User: Fold this.
Amino acid sequence: MKNSRRAFLKATSLGALASGLLDADLMAAAENPGQSIPKVYVAKLLKSSTLSMEGISKRTMEEHYKLYVGYVNKSNEIHEALRNVDLSKANQIYSPLRVLKVELSFAVGGVKNHEIYFDHLGGKGGRPGGKLLEYIVRDFGSYEAWERDFKATGLAARGWVWLAYDADRGSFFNYLGDAQNAYPIWNAVPIVALDTYEHAYYLDYATDRKSYIEAFMRNLDWSVVEGRFAGLPISR
Ligand SMILES: [Fe+2]
Assistant:
């Protein structure tokens, strides 16, 4: 059993990092082949271009990535716990069901926000082109006006800033979030996500968030943002 367990762990150690699964989960699965592994969320790998950026260090990105993997692991853990939660004890003041569902929104927010953030870093900044630029000019007046509002919102937020398209209003807006799960707007889809938590910049800039936001803009990959824009429900 020990040999098979060692071989299993060796074979899956890289996959474990990539999938965000805990070693404990893998070991349990190795010893209980019939047991299912929770795989609701699978961690994506960092792009190599995000590890050699000017202005946001490799160390910051590596440490930041660990936090992201933690969100993936906890999201899976909470989903697994929900499979066995006692529904008869549901209570709005305190109940395991309430705690799991509230914290699920925080954990999943941590997964989704960071996937947008990591995915569109590693670029060369500049500004978007084509239809996306047209929409930004339409909804903010000019690219410069959008960037001014976006950066200022980054100083006002405690967690996130999202450039998002509200499919109900039919327009873009820079939304502010104070946590991974605050404050979502239904039917608004983010295409740019700026992490303003201190962990995103403290190693590089201490408390100088303004310089970090400038570095974020210089490393934004607009081609990735344009790809997200292309998937929006904009038909006109
Ligand atoms: Fe973060």
Q: What stands out?
A: The mean pLDDT is 88. The chain has two domains: 2-119, 130-230. The longest helix spans residues 58-82. The chain is about 55% helix and 10% strand.
